[in-house]
Amino acid sequence: MVETRYVIPHRARTEALVAEALRAAGQPDDPARWQWIEHGSANLVVLAGAAAVRVGRDARAAAESLRAQTVVDALPGLPFTVPRALADPVRDGDMVAVAQSRLDGVPHPSGHGDAEVLRGVLDALAAVPIRALEARLAPPHAFMGGEQWHPVMVERAIPLLAPDVRDRARRAADDLAALEPVPEVLVHGDLAGSNLLWDGGVVTGVIDWDLASAGDPAIDVAALAVWHGWDVIERVRPPEVVHRARIIAATHLLQVVCFSLVQGRPETEVARAATWASARM
Mind telling me which residue stretches traverse the membrane in this protein (predicted)? Predict the structure, then answer.
């Protein structure tokens, strides 16, 4: 997703909360040994020892982080690791910190990738039984407004764009709305970039499950294709799925604007997201 200078929680409270979460997980709580990861739209993360502590940027993000952790902890065994909880969450008012297992691996460079490895990730997600997870999963399209995503995109987000890209954006939104339903599978919802960790040429971990839902598998195909290249994904997914993925990917920039709107982010952040989208559509 796009860096838009997100809301920053109170630093002193955050540090105290992180330290408490680390102590609960039996990990070092010396701030001098922490590594801060602050590019996430909903959460910031502190790495320390064998733990990764997530702190929501606001009360809504904190609640979503707690829900998402129940999804991760309920996932069956997968051919890659996931960030399971190391201890109970700790709270300070509306702030919440969750200590998770820190996963090995690093993000893959964009523009290329091993098609067969990516096939394995997609196949593993599709094979997860979703019935047992349904009550914990995010609603479909949660990132951009849930059931109301199309009105949010058309009536609120697109008018914020530069005039010369609005027609193109409206066509993209309408094309997405026109897709016929398909059988649902477990969808990660943001399956690319820093959320896939690689080591030795394989995916060793998948993080950031906040948007996991029961949905169209083409959602994850689109994310992987945008990061690794459409030519890579076309080798491991049928043409009809790739076609759907292209339609979904055409709205990615709009989805970021929608996210800022539905999350009630500051006007300056919404404006930056709209400017970013306008320049790249």
Answer: none
